[in-house]
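Input record (Table S2, row 336):
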Amino acid sequence: MKILLTGGAGYVGSACLRWLLNSGHDPYAFDDLSEGNRDSVPADRLIEGDIQDREALEKAMRDTGAEAVMNFAALASVPDSIRLPELYWRINVFGTKNILDAMMATGVKRILFSSTAATYSFDNEMPLTEEAALVPKVPYGTTKLACEKMIQEYSNAYGLSYAILRYFNAAGADPDGEFGEDRHHETHLIPLILQAAVGKRDKITIFGNDWETRDGTCVRDYVHTSDLAQAHQLAVENMKPGEGEIFNCGSGDGVTVQEVLQACENAVGRTIPSEICGRRPGDPAILIASSQKIKDQLGWEPQFPKIEDIVGSAWRWHERYPHGYKDKETVHSQDT
Ligand code: UFG
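Output record (UFG complex):
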């Protein structure tokens, strides 16, 4: 299928593009490279453009003959969203509206949307099913929920098919360590720990050890980007005309921050400097997914559910390319 991936040169989007290519699809990334990386996708698969630019979006949809759009283009940091709600509403919500309107103008009828566990109320019982109450507490979650509602209302009125995938904590790198996480401004746990391991930062700061969890640090459900990519492939191949589905995507295993740090130390083979500080605003104590629905309906089966395998792949990437894609350019220019 011809698929346009907005934000397709970003961390999850590029993993998905590479996966779709290997599965015989015909995917193209549309990305302004503000957070994405040129070298994360083949050069002939990248269309440079901004989701705020309606004309550029429509042109990309027409030029590629897109039959479906997957929207990965978004800002995705909980702490940043609390500081910068205007930016989050503009990029995440107005960007998604632009994409939907460009789809309407060009006749593209299928959309897959990257949503998040941050749409749920943190008072729900764990693991979270798709029916759990939705009461986002931070702008990242409210903007993503607004997009979900917009997609559903467009679907009802204009007959779009949709699949909304609520990711838990996206993590890991390509199993061979050649492609991985590389943002200009990093706030996520695993890359920050591994940056401390390679000496790019002094230490990792642990946000609170007084939570009601088994070791006092927050529990999260880490899901490998290759497994998220598989979920997108299954979802796009199984869409029904005019209908929509929402699926959680997580490994189903809750891991504490201390356990992630320990798994990273095991992968790296040495102690990584850390320090405990206060809780981070907007954090819930525990987030764990039930992904039974996507397993039952689409046959999704995560290949890398274990935190050891997730951080192992991330470490291969960080160890080889401590400065991310910049280092890849250097390695390749030395090769030639
Ligand atoms: N953490 C630290 N130190 C750091 C960074 C993170 O202790 O330097 C902790 C956080 O407090 C949290 C855990 O590590 O307990 C994971 O934090 P991330 O920033 O990596 O990810 P989040 O849990 O904030 O983000 C995730 C998902 C979202 C989801 C959100 C809901 O990526 O999809 O949780 O809070 F919406």
